[in-house]
Design brief:
Layout lengths: L6 E3 L4 E3 L27 H17 L12 H4 L5
Antiparallel strand pairs: 1-2
């Protein structure tokens, strides 16, 4: 039998957030998967700042333009002799 429950770690022990139907002293194998906290998500200001930096960086990158004909499938996968 395998069961998934949500729990919290209080610094010493793991505390289930819901009742668990198990006999007392039942040996278990526990796999822990951390759930990200809400405050760990980037704020709107951070997202806007990252997008602005990306736009600034993309303006500094220069490369010769690739002609549209070079991007055609026939030219990309043409057999070369």
């Amino acid at each position: 039998m395998s069961v998934t429950i949500r729990a919290r770690f209080d610094g010493r022990v793991i505390i289930p957030e819901e009742p668990v139907d198990l006999p007392i002293d039942q040996p278990l194998v526990v796999e822990l998967t951390p759930v990200p906290r809400e405050e760990e998500k980037p704020s709107e200001a951070v997202i806007r700042q990252r997008l602005r930096r990306l736009e600034e960086a993309s303006g500094r990158i220069s490369a010769p333009p690739i002609p549209a004909e070079a991007l055609c499938r026939e030219n990309l996968y043409d057999e070369r002799i």
